[in-house]
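Re: that chain you flagged

S.,

Sorry for the slow reply, it's been a week of failed gels. I finally had a moment to sit down with the sequence you sent. For the record, here it is as I used it:
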Amino acid sequence: MMFIFTRKRAVISLGALVVFFLPIVAQLTGDPYLISLGSRILIYALAAVSLDLLLGYGAMISLGHAAFVGIGAYVIGIFHFHSFDSSPLFTSPFLLSGSENGLFVLPMAVLAASFAALIIGALSLRTTGMHFIMITLAFAQMLYYFFVSLEKYGGDDGLSLYSRNSFPGLDLGNDLHFYYLCLAALCLFLFFTCRLVNSRFGLIIRGAGNNDRRARSLGIHSNSYKLVTFMIAGGGAGLAGALLANQTEYVSPGLMHWTLSGELMVMVLLGGLGTLFGPVLGAAVFLLLEEGLAMYTEHWMVYMGPILILVVIFAKRGLFGLVTGGSKKDD
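Prediction finished late last night. Pasting the structure tokens below so you have them in one place:
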């Protein structure tokens, strides 16, 4: 099969080169903050891609996606807390101690977020439309106030980490090593989701998202497929939360607030709904604009608003669709 180098592939290749060589450029220019900013962009891009899986392909408009980011972050924070004071998380039905081993706690964060997504999704998917939006928002706010009430883990003040997780062959305390771990996580999730949405499973999710009633009339149990998609998206957000906890060395209930869900949704719409790579661009543009505008005013959202309006009016397929000139669907 002949490989055709399209405009879309050229844009993706250029973007890949930029993110890969960014730390090297930062070191050469003596500006290490670029590495930290780049890591933050990669983490938020991962969370935005996971949300795009729901919004762009399954037509599941969730305002509670931040809940899974927060769960992933708190898994890291709670394991670190018990590792630091040498106390077990629980002793029954089996003993589970704290840990700072990234090979253990990062998968645990993904599993915890996926399990939460299973429960929330099983209940939320009984509804559609506005009711689905509100019930996902309600679950996120319930979790937010639940973690506010956990005084043992800092309550409203949050929980500080005294170091990042350990990882074989890497020193995550080194921003360069941590950056490439975030990049690897994003690339693996993008590869997985691209394969997923272009598989038979992905075709069913797209079809159910476009016309759920027709999918059901064909004998497809669309809710089962949607629930699995919800779990995968929750797991991706949980991984993003785990990485964010490591970067900031701090977790708080604010990570579960609906405003973070709104920011992730803006990143998806800004980059391009239903493109997977678009949310990566959307996260980069959103955070760079926030960083740049915040240098001049604390009311940076006042200036962000008109920019988003212009994108919606003149780039209906998002910035990714604008620069690639293609449709919103992946090749």
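What I noticed first: Residues 327-331 have pLDDT under 50 and may be disordered.

Talk soon,
D.
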